[in-house]
Amino acid sequence: MSQPSPAPRLTPQFCFNQTALRDFLRISRGTIDDSITQNLNALLTPSRRGFDPASTSSRQWSAPGRILPPGQCGQFKEKVLYPSWAVRSDVLDYCAGVATSPDPEDPDSVLRQIEDVRARERTVNERLDPYSGRYFPREARTESLAMLMRNERAVEKIIRIRTWNLLGERCGSSHESAEEAFDKWRTSQRQ
Question: What is the extent of the structural domain holding 24?
Answer without folding.
Answer: 12-38+68-121+130-190
